[in-house]
Amino acid sequence: MDLTILWFWIIAVLFVGYFVLDGFDFGVGMSLPFLGRDDTDRRVLINTIGPVWDLNETWVIVAGASLFAAFPEWYATLFSGFYLPLLVILIALILRGVSFEYRHQRPEASWKRRFDAMIVVGSALPALLWGVAFANIVRGVPLDANHDFAGSLLDLLNPYALLGGVTTLLLFFTHGVVFVALKTDGGIRHRARKLAARAGVVTVIAAAAFLTWTISSHSATAVVILAVSAAVLLIGALVANAAGREGVAFTLMAGTIATAVLSLFAALFPAVMPAINDPANSLTIANASSSPYTLQMMSWIALCALPLVLVYQGWTYWIFRKRVTREHIPEAAH
């Protein structure tokens, strides 16, 4: 396989890993106002992702670094043209991380409420804006002859991109609530299952509209198969949730997000940044990639490092696999 094609799909897999893993982090953060009836409930929710949220975020760092090394032209155009949305995502992630660490440093309820609000906002904004960004990449943006972004912020706020943002927001929310049902017990678990069922209906509607719109513009066989697979997996996840099979529901939600993201990359291929104003200005895997030597060296590094990362992350999830309950939260904890 050509190394440019290989690295296009490696980057796709890295973003799949990020959206699947940090996606449920975002969902748990957004669920605080809905599932956290008191501070103990909110501590339970935060503790479900406490050992893993920062590890999950390393996937986007690796994806960004790989994008920079393998496709520097793509990286430059993307990060210059999407500077403001990506900056907002970065700030939101920083505030969310700070809130996890600082909310328990003082006992005042007002102190905790402020940081809880930052967790909710810091989870919802990336969930929305990542969808807007990727929908714009698939749709295409105005590019000049030098492959520089030639549009404005308003060009990024088009109906297709906004629908993509709403879809990822709802997918991640449902994914996170299913994860809460998997990782907790008692009242929170039952409330999470009910919330996942209600949120899932809205998610199905938004996802169906977005994937149908994508298929209508990119009708390649691979896109259709992946999009239909995502829809089937999503419905299967909701059925499993209704049956109380949280592990199956979570696995199917992960599969939904994975196949949906892969459908977007399949719709994009072989371009990496289409130019809607002039197709001749589009970035492709051919004119945006690094030298063959660079890609070859990266391939050897990835072959050695990626298995170690996967083993370590799998071991971490295994160590922290037990359910979190209210009984695990000490009365005096703040």
TrEMBL record:
The keyword DNA-binding does not apply. One of its GO terms (biological process) is aerobic electron transport chain. It is a multi-pass membrane protein. It is found in: Cell membrane. GO terms for molecular function: electron transfer activity; metal ion binding; oxidoreductase activity, acting on diphenols and related substances as donors, oxygen as acceptor. Its main location: membrane. GO terms for cellular component: cytochrome complex; plasma membrane. InterPro entries: Cyt-d_oxidase_su2. Keywords: Cell membrane, Electron transport, Heme, Iron, Membrane, Metal-binding, Transmembrane, Transmembrane helix, Transport. The chain crosses the membrane at residues 6-32, 74-95, 115-137, 157-183, 195-215, 221-240, 252-277, 297-320. Belongs to the cytochrome ubiquinol oxidase subunit 2 family. This is Cytochrome bd-I ubiquinol oxidase subunit 2 apoprotein. It comes from Paramicrobacterium humi.
